[in-house]
Amino acid sequence: MTDRPEDAFFTLHADLPREGPGETADVAWAAELAGLKPDARILDAASGPGGDIGALLRAAPSGHVTAIDLHAPFIIAAQARWGVDARVTLLTGDMTAPEGPFDFIWCAGAVYFLGVEAALRAWTPRLAPGGVIAFSEPCLFTDTPSEGALAFWEGYPRLTDAAGIAAQVAAAGFTTLATRRIGDIGWESYFRPMEARIARLRPGADAALSAVLDQAEAEIALWRAHRAETGYLLSLVSPA
Ligand SMILES: C[S@@+](CC[C@H](N)C(=O)[O-])C[C@H]1O[C@@H](n2cnc3c(N)ncnc32)[C@H](O)[C@@H]1O
């Protein structure tokens, strides 16, 4: 193999069931609290390979899910799983582009690319009356985080705690209806398939790929060591 660093990254990340932490129960929690109707129009913003599409359809069996991601190979992977389902539209593009209107915007592990305030402002005109948004965002669960906990997010400049996230939500003109931490099952649903893939890729990996595999293993170890101090907070929000 002669991977460049970015190719090596996607060699590791291709064909994983999901690209960030989360589980079916997170979607069910948000959908139930949101009072989602069976025919809800849903946006899965930055869907990755579509790991949450099944849970979103279970929450709205006669609804429609528009799933969009910037990285075309993830959408191609989602196509293989959901391409024949008429309830699903798969798009390559920016997560703020689909015009809607949507009853529910779901964004797992990707609002940090834009920032909470910017993402919510961009989605405001895309929400149907009564529509809600659920998103997960890096969060500190302690006032005294260790260096390891801070290092896990690699200096993410907006890293804050639950009150800080709620303040960003309010600044965008939204109210926080409820929050919950993404639990260990959600994180392991992301990390365990990645570990299996690392083990498969190790033999014969070139220097670029080895570096990416080392980094991924270090990230997994860092989260396991500091998971009481930091993680993702899932917030359910509605326009104020
Ligand atoms: C941590 S992954 C989460 C993916 C998916 N929600 C999941 O939980 O499996 C973040 C995703 O955001 C996508 N992404 C980043 N910026 C984006 C943007 N502006 N519009 C659409 N997708 C974006 C990346 O391509 C990547 O698939």
Structure description:
With 240 residues, the protein is of the alpha/beta class. The protein has one domain: Vaccinia Virus protein VP39 (Rossmann fold, 3-Layer(aba) Sandwich), CATH 3.40.50. It contains nine helices and eight strands. Strands 1, 2, 3, 4, 5, 6, 7 and 8 form an eight-stranded mixed sheet that branches. The longest helix is centred in the last third of the chain and has 20 residues. The radius of gyration is 18 Å and the shape is globular. It starts with a helix and ends with a strand. The mean pLDDT is 96. Bound molecules: S-adenosylmethionine.
Topology:
Elements: H1 5-13, H2 24-34, E1 41-45, H3 53-59, E2 64-69, H4 72-82, E3 88-92, E4 102-107, H5 116-123, E5 127-140, H6 147-152, E6 160-161, H7 162-171, E7 174-181, H8 184-201, H9 207-226, E8 230-239
Parallel strand pairs: 1-2, 1-4, 2-3, 4-5, 5-6
Antiparallel strand pairs: 5-8, 7-8
Helix pairs in contact: 1-9, 2-3, 8-9
Summary keywords:
240 residues; alpha/beta; Rossmann fold; 8-stranded mixed sheet; globular; binds S-adenosylmethionine
